[in-house]
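Hey L., structure's done. Input below.
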Amino acid sequence: MGVIPQTAAPIDILTAMTQIGERGEGSKYSWYETLKRIYRQNAANDTVFVERFVEKCQQLHLRTRVLYHDDAESRNLLRETQFSDLLVLSAAQFIPDSRLTAPPRQQLQLLRGAGCPILIVPAKYERIENYLLVYEGTSSCMRTIKQFSALLTDAARKFKILLAVVGDKSRQHAEEVRLLQEFADSHFPKLSILPLLDNAEEEILYNAREEEGVLLVCGSETHTLASLLIHNSKLRRFEFPVFVGR
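Output:
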C-alpha cells in the first residue's frame, strides 16, 4: 500500500497572515517567525497522522509504505503502484495553486497511470457508512466495481450500496444492466440501483453530497470523476472520500 500522507488539521497560512496583519506592530512574532512556526506545526501534524496510520495498518496486519510527496519520490510512485493493492492520497494533492482552476497535471497523470486503485482522502470526513458506485457503461467502470468488492469485501457486504447506472434506453444497455445487477446482487446484500440517463454527473454528485458518511466509487476515466475534480478545484476542497479504480 503506497501512501502520501495528508496534513492533519493544517494551519491556513493565509488566515494566519491576516491575523498577523490585524495585530499590527504589537505582534509577538514577526511574519517570518510566524510562518516558520506554522510550517513546524504542520510538519508535527503530518508526523502524528503518519504514526496513527501506520499503527492502525499494523493492527490490521497490512503492510504499508509511506511516501512524502516530493519530486524524487513521485517519479518512483507510478512504478511502485504496479506492486501495491491500494494507494492512499491526500485530497490536498488535487487542489490547485490559487492561480489555477484545474487539478495539478502530475496528479491527473497519476490517476490515469497508477497500477492499483487510489483512495483520495480529504482532511475531514464523516465515518463511512454509505457507498455510491458509478457505472457508466465502460469496462473500466466494471473493473472498478470488482476491485472495490475485492478490496473492501466487509464493507461491501455490511453497508448500504447505491449503484448509479448511467446509460440510454437501448436494448444493449438493458442487457448490460441485467448482467450488472446479477453480479451486484451476489456481492452487495444491501444494494439499491439508481437508473440515470447519460450526462448524469451532476445528479450523481448531488446524491453523494446528500448521503451522510459516503464514499464515492468510480473509474479513473469516468465523466463523474472529471466533473468531481473540476468542481472540487473551484471549491478548493473535497467533501467526501473517493475510491478511483483502474
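Confidence is low (pLDDT under 50) at residues 1-27. The chain is about 50% helix and 15% strand.

-- N.
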